[in-house]
Amino acid sequence: MNEFGYQVHLPVLATAGAGAGAAAAKVSSSTGTLTGATSKAIGAHPGWQSSVALQKCLEAWEARLRALAAEVKHISDNLGQTTRQYQHAEQEIVAQITRVAAQLRELKAR
Amino acid sequence: MVDYHELDSARPPLWSEAAADWDMLGTDLGTAAGALNEQTRQPLSASWSGRAATAALSRIKAAVDSLEAAQGEVSAVGETLQGLAEAATVAQQLLGDAQAMAERASLTIAADGSVTQQLPPPFLPTAQPATMLGTVLSPQVQQVEQIVSEAIQRASMADQLTAAELDRLATRANVANLQLAYNTDAADASRTELAAMTASIPVGPPNLVARWWAGLSGAEQAKLELAAPTTLATLAGIPAGVQAELRGSDGIDRVRVIQYALTNWNKTVDRRFTDDCTNFVSDALLAGGLQQKQEGFWPFDHGNSQVNWYTDPWSLPRSYSWTKATDLHTFLTHNNSSEIPLGQAKPGDIIFFHDPEQGIHHAAVITAVVNGHVYYTQHSGGQENADLSLRQTMYNQLGDPQDAIVVRPVQDSGNGV
Fold first, then answer.
1. How far apart are CA B242 and CA B46, in angstroms?
2. What's B314-350 look like in SS3?
3. Cα-to-chain-centroid distance, residue B366
4. What per-residue confidence (pLDDT) applies to B123?
5. Which residues in B lie closer than 8 A to residue A36 (C-beta atoms)?
6. If DSSP codes are grouped into helix, strand and coil, which group holds residue B376?
7. What span, in angstroms and rounded, lies between the C-alpha atoms of B224 and A25?
C-alpha cells in the first residue's frame, strides 16, 4: 500500500470510537469521586503539613485527569467523526458511480 | 511541626479512607487504560491502516501510556497517605499513654501540651503549672511531658516525610512513562510509607518504650513487627522475647538479613556487576549467618546448585547459586529451606520472580509486610521497601505477568565451607 492508500473496516472503527468514549467516561467519573474522602481528611487536619501537600496533589491530579479524560473523549469524538466521513465518502463515491452508470446507460440508449 | 492539639484531635482513619480512594482511582485508571487498549487500540491496529490510522493510533497509544502511568502515580499517593495514617495511629497511641498517666497522677495536659497539676483547695486556689510544685511531683510531670514531646516529635517526623512525598507527587502529574511512574515514583512512595511508619515508633528511654509497647494490642504489636522489624529488634525497651522472635529460630538471623538489604540497597557491594540481584541476596543471607557450602573443587563443582553455595567476594570463584536467581532457589530448596505461600511471607524471607519465558530470573529480600502488602528490597534497579503489588501491576501492564515465589531461609546442618 502506498502513502495514499488505506484500509478500514467501518464497524470496527465505530465500535472502537464508542470504546474510547466509555473509557473517557470512566476516567471522568472516577476523578469526580476523588474529592470526597480526601477533602474530608484535609479539612480534619488543618495544622498538618501533609494536608497542604495533599491539597496540592489533589488539585494537580484533578486537573491532569480531567485533561486526560478530555483527550480520550476527543479521540472518541474524532473516531466517530472519521467513521462518518468515511461513510460519507463511500456514499459519495457510490452516488457518483451510480450517476456515471446512469449517464452511460443514457448514452447507450441514444 | 504538629502540636499537641493537632495530634490529639487527628483522625487517622480519614487518611486511610483517602488512601483507599486514591487506590481505587488507580484501579479505575488501570481499567480505563486496559479498555482503551483492548477495545480501541488493538482492534484498530488490526483493521485500519493509512496515514489517518497512523496518526490516530499514535495518539491512542499515548493516551493508554498516560493512563497507565497515572495509575502508578495515584497509587503512590495512596501508599503515602496510608503510611501517614499508620504513623499517626502509633503516635496517638503514645499520646494516649501520656494522657492515661496524667489522669492517674491528677495532671492536666493543656491544649498547647503543657502539663499542670490540679490540687483541691485549700492547698492551691487554682491549677498551677506543675513545675511550680517542687520536686515531689517532678518525676511524673517530667515523664508525661517526655511522652507528649516524643509523640509530637514522632508525628511531626511522619508528617514531614509524608508532606515532602506528596509535594513531589503533585509535580509528577505529567509523567507518561509507565516504568518511571512505578520504578521511581511509586517505589519512592512506598519507601516513604515505611519510613513514616518507622519514624512514628518512639525511641525515648527504655521505660517509655516498654510502657508504650505493653499498651499496644497484640494485633498492633504484630503489625509493627512486620512493618519495622529492624527498628524493634534493636530498640531498648522492646521485650527480649519479641526481639528474639524477630531474629528467628531457624539458625539465620533474619534481622541481619534485612539490615544488610536496607543498608546496601543503594550501594555497590562486593561485586561490581550492574546486574547482581542474586549476589545481593546471597550477601544478605551470608550476613544473616547462612553457612556457605562447597562439595568438590571450583571450577568443577560451581554448577551443582543442589549442593553448592559459596563465594570469594574479591575473586572469581563462586557457585552459580551465588549469583543466579534460579540456582539460588535450587540451592535453598534443596538445603532445608522451603517455599511458603505469599500470604505467609514475613520480613527476612527471600522472594523470587518467575515468568513463563525466563523462569526464575530475579531475587530480592522481603523487608516488610504491611496490611498484607509485601515490601521487598533489591539490587539491579536498587529499591528499598518497594511494594510488590505495584511491581506486579506494572509487569501486568507491560504484558509480562510475574509470579512471586517466597522461600523461607533455614540453616542447613550440612557441611559448611
1. 60
2. CCCCECHHHHCHHHHHHHHHCCCCEEECHHHCCCCCE
3. 9
4. 52
5. 21
6. strand
7. 41
> A37 to chain B: which residues are within 8 Å by CB?
14, 17-18, 20-21
Distance to chain B for A105, nearest Cα, Å: 35
ipTM: 0.90
Chain centroid offset of residue B67 CA = 26
Average pLDDT over all residues of chain B: 91
Alpha-carbon gap, residue B81 to B165, rounded angstroms:
10
CA atoms within 13 A on the CB side of B170: 17
Looking up cell 503489625 gives: B223
Helix (H) or strand (E) holding A44: helix A35-44
> Contact A34/B77, CB-based, under 8 Å?
no
Q: Which residue of B has its CA nearest to A9?
A: B47
CB B87 within 8 A of CB A52: no
**B47 CA: distance to closest CA in chain A (Å):** 6
pLDDT in tens, A25-82: 999 999 988 889 999 999 999 999 999 999 999 999 999 999 999 999 999 999 999 9
Strand partners of residue B128? B117
Amino acid at B340: I
Rounded Cα gap, residues A20 and B44, in angstroms: 12
Cell numbers found for residue B245: 522472635
Q: Say if residue B127's pLDDT is above 50.
A: yes
Buried b (16+ CB within 10 A) or exposed e, B86-114: bbbbbbbbbbebbbebbeebebbbeeebe
